[in-house]
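Please complete every field before forwarding. Incomplete forms are returned to the sender.

SECTION A: IDENTIFIERS
Entry label: holo-242
Bound molecule: L7CU2Q4V
Molecule representation: SMILES string

SECTION B: INPUTS
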Amino acid sequence: MASGEEDGAVEEKESNNKKRTKGAIATTWLTFYNIAMTAGWLVLGVAMMRFYLQKGTHKGLYKSIARTLKFFQTFALLEVGHCATGLVRTSVIVTGVQVSSRIFMVWFITHSIRQVQNQESLILFLVAWTVTEITRYSFYTFSLLKHLPYFIKWARYNLFIIMYPLGVIGELMTIYAALPYVRKSGMYSLRLPNKYNVSFDYYYFLIIVMLSYIPLFPQLFLHMLRQRRRVLHGEVIVEKDE
Ligand SMILES: CCCCCCCCCCCCC[C@@H](O)CC(=O)SCCNC(=O)CCNC(=O)[C@H](O)C(C)(C)COP(=O)(O)OP(=O)(O)OC[C@H]1O[C@@H](n2cnc3c(N)ncnc32)[C@H](O)[C@@H]1OP(=O)(O)O
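SECTION C: PREDICTED COMPLEX
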C-alpha cells in the first residue's frame, strides 16, 4: 500500500517536471519569436520612414521594403500553428482569418500586381500593419518577461480602434485598384475549354474577397473590443467556443 502511494507520488512528480520543461521550452520559443517579429516590424517601420524622409514620395517605397515585408508577414503563419497546438490561448479561426488575409494581400495582390505597388492606399495599410505589429509583438514579449509597461498594454488595446479600420480601408482600396489589371491580363484565371473542365476567374474571386470583409471584419473588430474590456477593464467575458 505504502509502496503504491510512493509510486503515485513519483509519477506525479515526473509528470510535473515534464509539464515544467514543456512550459519552459514554449516560453523560450515564444520569447524568441516575439523578439524577432518586433525587430522585423521595427526594421520595416524605420525603413519606411527613412525612405519617405529621403525621397519625399511614397513611389518606390513598396519596392524598397518588399523583401522584409514578405519575410516577416509570411513568418506570421507560425501563429496559426501556435494556436492550433495550444501554445497560446487564442482562437485558431480569428488568427487564421487575420493571418490569411494579410498573406493574401502580400503575395496575391502587392507582390503579383506590379501596377498597384505605387498606390497611396498601400501606405495606409503598411503603416497600420507596422504600428500594430510593433505594439502587439512587444506586448507579448514584455508579458512573457513579466515586465509589461502600462503604455504598451494601453497601446495594444487602443490603437487598433484607429489602425484596424485604416488598414482595412487601405487593403480594400488596393484590391479595388488591382481589378482593372486583373481583368485585362486574365491572371490566375482558368478559362474553358481546358483539360480539367473547370473555370476560375480571379477578377470575380477578388470581388468575393472584398465582399467577405463585410461579415468578417466586424467580427474581428468586436473580438478586439471584447479583449480590450477584458484586459483593460477586467471584465469577465464568456466567449463562445470558436
Ligand atoms: C484566401 C483569401 C482570404 C481572404 C480573407 C478576407 C478576410 C477579410 C477580413 C479580414 C480583415 C483583416 C484586415 C487586417 O489585415 C487589417 C489590419 O490588421 S490593420 C492593422 C490593425 N490590426 C489589428 O489591430 C489587429 C488586431 N487583431 C489581433 O490582434 C488579432 O485578433 C489576433 C492577432 C488574432 C490576436 O488575437 P487575440 O485578441 O485573441 O490575442 P491576444 O493578443 O489578446 O492574445 C490572447 C492570449 O494569447 C497570448 N498570445 C497570443 N499570441 C502570443 C504570442 N505570439 N506570444 C505570447 N503570447 C501570445 C496573449 O498573451 C493572451 O494571453 P492571456 O489570455 O494570458 O492574456
